[in-house]
Amino acid sequence: MGRHGDANTPSKRRGRPPKVARANPDTRDALIRCGVEVLTEQGFVSTGIDGVLKRVGVPKGSFYHYFDSKEAFGHAVLSRYADYFARKLDRRLLSSELPPLERLRRFTQDAQEGMARYHYRRGCLVGNLGQEVTLLPAGFDARLEAILQDWQRRVADCLRLAQTQGALAADTDCDTLAAFFWIGWEGAVQRARLQCGPTPLALFSQEFFARLPR
User: Fold this and answer.
1) Comparing C-alpha atoms, which of 2, 3, 59, 1 is closest to residue 31?
2) Which ranges in 12-171 belong to alpha helices (H)?
3) pTM here?
4) Confidence of residue 11 (pLDDT cuts 50, 70, 90)
5) Where does the record place the region Disordered (predicted)?
6) Which of 8, 89, 101, 165 sits a CA distance of 20 to 30 A from 136?
7) Distance CA 18, CA 15 (A)
8) What is the dihedral of CA 206, 211, 212, 214, to 10 degrees?
9) Backbone phi, then psi, for 6, in 5-degree steps?
10) pLDDT band at 18 (very low <50, low <70, confident <90, very high)
11) What is the Cα–Cα distance from 130 to 198, expressed in whole angstroms?
12) What does the pLDDT average to over 153-167?
């Protein structure tokens, strides 16, 4: 074997390749999912990017590969949450297996169970950000209101269906009633977190359905 043979030539060190930021949909998705979890617990202002990165286990360079800023990250998280919640509403409110008002009641029951599962640490991401609206970057207020309007529309459609089936009075203003539902429900969610218990949620649900115009 010659003097440049394999036996005497130092082999190239094997190991992990250098970290290079690559477009990885799984990493971006993990960051957004973690953002949803964190922002439903503590809001936007007090959420630090370093904490999110630590939970996901990716370097800061990866974060800025996908998001130009914390603000851009916040908008991506908000979009993910809005899509998720719209699907959740549709699963309940469009179910043909139950009468319309019972669909809405089941939604409130599901939400109560969800908050209890996380020991009332997590609330509504939209409601959390709404509490911080004066501290958020410009543009968040309009997006939050648009999301709430979308949720109201879905509830109003469900109430109108109940109206056509005779479960609500013919002169019921379903749009106003849907707005009232979300104003009250978001307040009940915040109060439940404050009390670490289900009483505000149960009380609002009980009174809302008991006072519907029949």
Assistant:
1) 59
2) 25-42, 49-56, 60-66, 70-93, 100-117, 125-131, 140-164
3) 0.86
4) very low
5) 1-26
6) 89
7) 9
8) 130
9) -60, -30
10) very low
11) 21
12) 98
- Structure tokens, 165: 């089936």
Q: What are the C-alpha distances in Å from 43 to residues 70, 73, 124, 166?
A: 13, 13, 10, 41
DSSP state of 169: -
- Between CA 97 and CA 75 the distance in angstroms is 35
CB pairs under 8 A, 24+ apart, for 183-187?
A: 184/208, 185/108, 185/111, 186/124, 186/126, 186/127, 186/130
Tokens standing for residue 162: 């109940």
At residue 144's C-alpha, the angle toward residues 38 and 99, to 5°, is: 95
Structure tokens at 93: 């409110």
Give me 142's structure tokens.
């309009």
Identity of the residue numbered 52: V
